[in-house]
Amino acid sequence: MFRRIRWRLVATYLVVILPALSFLGVHLARDSEARYLAQVETGLLAQARLIAVHVGPAVATGDATRTRAEFAGTHYPGRPAVVIVHRSGAVLVDDAPDPRLRRERPVRRDGLALALAGQETAGVARVDGVLVVYGAVPIRAPAGIVGAVHVALPLVELAAQLRHIRTFIAWTVLGTLLWAVIVSLLLAQRLAGPIQEMRATTARLAAGDLSVRVPVRTADELGDLARALNYMAAELQRLDGLRRDFVADASHELRTPVANLAVAVE
Question: Is the pLDDT reported for residue 215 higher than 70?
Answer without folding.
Answer: yes
